[in-house]
Each structure stands twice: as C-alpha cells, then as structure tokens.
Amino acid sequence: MQGTSGTGHSRESEDVRRLRRLWDQHIHLPFPALGDDARSQEVALYAAWLGSMVEAVLGRGALDPLHADMLKVRRAEGNQELFRAGGELGDPVRSYVARLIAIEDILISLPVDK
Q: Are 97 and 43 a contacting pair, CB within 8 Å?
C-alpha cells in the first residue's frame, strides 16, 4: 500500500494528516509522572477516551457518528476538570492537556462518516 503520506492513505485530508502527526507526537511522549492524584487520573482517562477515537479516525479517515455525538456531549459539558487539572498540576500536565485539547479540536472538525 502506498500513499502520499507513506501510510497507505493517499487521499487523506490535511486535517487527518495533522491529527496523525500530533497523535504520533503525543503517543511518543510519556505521561507526566504524578502518582495516584485524582486529577492526573482524570487526565489519563480523558487521554485514553480520546485515543480510542483518534485510532478509529486514523483507520477510516473520518469520525464515527457515535464518536461525533460523544464529542459534542463532552464539549457541551465542558472541559473544566481537565483545565483545572492542567492548571493545578503544573507545566508538564498543562502541556499534555493542551495537546489533548488540540487533538480534540481536530477531531471535532473532521467530517462524520455516514
């Protein structure tokens, strides 16, 4: 399989390519070591939840309708706990959360698979 991105996805949109690059960067950086603080657990759970959506998008090139609905609900509820954790836990977590929010922003902008 050959494609312009080198991944077999010759017709991959620019947003999916951006997502692929950001996700690749994200998964190769360690999660900030914070012990069992509940705030860090909130960030880790969010990262895992978001990651399942990213992996699906990278496999199909579009957002699954169920994932799109889940993201809309999450956005409506807000990310206050995530922002609070990033702010209270300091720079390593703040950067990690910022990257997750950037990933979420790309996901929400993708076309939804029919």
A: yes
- Please, which residues bridge with residue 112 across strands? 63
- Show the tokens assigned to 18: 């951006």
What pLDDT tens digit does each residue of the chain (114 aa) get?
A: 333 344 444 578 999 999 999 999 999 988 887 777 888 888 999 999 999 999 999 999 999 999 999 999 999 998 888 888 888 888 888 999 999 999 999 999 999 988
Cα–Cα distance for residue pair 110/68, rounded to 1 Å: 9
b (16+ CB within 10 A) / e for 33-55: ebeeeebbebbeebbeebeebbe
Q: How far is CA 15 from CA 23, 24, 36, 39, 87, in A?
A: 12, 14, 35, 30, 28
Q: What residue ranges do the domains of the chain occupy?
A: 14-109
